[in-house]
Amino acid sequence: MKILKQPEKKTYERDAQLTKTVVDIIDNVRTNGDQALVEYAAKFDKMDIQTVRVDPEQVKAAYGKVDPETLEAIRFSAGQIRFFAEQQRGCLKDLDIQGKVPGLEIGHRMVPVERCGCYVPAGRHPLPSSALMGVVTAKVAGVKQVAACSPAFPGCGSIHPAVLVAMDIAGADEIYCMGGAQAIAAFAYGTQTVKKVDLIVGPGNRFVTEAKRQVLGDVGIDSLAGPSEVLVLADETANPTFVAIDLLGQAEHDPNAKPILVCTSQSVIDQAMSELERLLPTLETREVAAQSWRDNGAVYLADSMEEAIAISNDIAPEHLEVQVKHEREVAKQLLHYGSMFVGHYAPVAFGDFVSGPNHTLPTMRTARYSNGVWVGTFIKTPFHQFVSKEGCLNLSRHCMRFAEVEGLQAHRDSVKLRLEG
User: What letter would DSSP give residue 219?
Assistant: First the structure.
């Protein structure tokens, strides 16, 4: 293996100041509730508002501000996400079985959380796709109350109309114009207007991520997101132009995004790098993409496809593209990734918007042990056991022995007294 390009800096680091800033924001929201949210809206979003709750009439009016082609795309995407989530939900079933001893029934149930909060980021561009990914999946999972939030978008005076429309089409029960650590705090602890939730999902900046880390335990979260990543796995059959534009497609997300190429062909690498330099100036996002590629891009020349696969499995990227000759055989050997895109005509863009699987995915190697948001994210699986008198007798001897070994007398006697009774 040859490393032809390495990242020049770390893309995400926690620091003491970040931690303290978020602690102060969370404490302020917990103490002052709505007042703190309104003050943060003025401070961070330059908004003069009385409440963070978005009125249904405002949502209705947003439809008139979104062009028909965008509305059609939002509805199409919602349908794709809903279809895939429904198929996933169908795989999750209650379990009720007879135990290995007579008189014992064991099992579990699929129980959705009652209330969740879906965070939708707002940066340089509106992100209606993120609204769909969170809210649609939660509703298919059976969550009764889904609250969605997003910061005010510059120039709109509130949430961007396309995002409001996406939240509504997805089925959000409540919509709040709030963002940052203060939004996470409001969801986690509640305010006079915002009712606390059981689970918070959705990506965000480092303040949002740090806030999710700090409230974890008081409320559930999906994951701690880092900068977005793509790894393009390619061989001599890959189209250098496709490789180049897909690396740039990731790079344009954010200055901290991580575009990675692992390829078995020096020729394809050389041509792809030439194409990258040709295509970069044509992008309106060229400044962000150039910084991301310069600071965080990586290129590996693998000696074999086996080595390329091993490199990918070690990196465990958020997005994994497979542009090779024997794509299905190679795909079977790839184990660690958030979402995989197989074939020369499978860019990450499809997964970001319209193919159906969720785009809220694990980053920073966490794909080695976790997965992206899916219907199961919103579902608990509590266990149960029904024990008859016969079952009590059949389990008692070994249970009481365990209790004695572990020094738990009341545990032992809770069985013993039933036998004597």
Answer: B
Reported as a single tens digit per residue, the pLDDT across 265-300 is 999 999 999 999 999 999 999 999 999 999 999 999
Span 324-337, pLDDT tens digits = 999 999 999 999 99
Q: Are 211 and 217 in contact (CB under 8 A)?
A: no
Establish whether 318 is a catalytic residue: yes
Candidate list 160, 229, 275, 319, residue with the active-site label: 319
298-301/2-5 β-pairing: antiparallel
- Residue 30: exposed, middle, or buried by beta-carbon count in 10 A (0-12, 13-18, 19+)? middle
Q: Which amino acid is at 133?
A: M
Q: Is the dihedral of CA 240, 241, 244, 245 positive or negative?
A: negative
Does this model's pTM top 0.90? My answer is yes
146: left (phi over 0), alpha (psi -120 to 50) or beta: beta
Backbone angles phi, psi at 119, to 5 degrees: -90, 130
Q: Confidence band (pLDDT; 50, 70, 90) for 15?
A: confident
Active site residue 319: yes
Alpha carbon of 318 to those of 93, 257, 374: distances in Å?
Answer: 28, 11, 15
* From 210, 275, 318, 321, active-site residue: 318
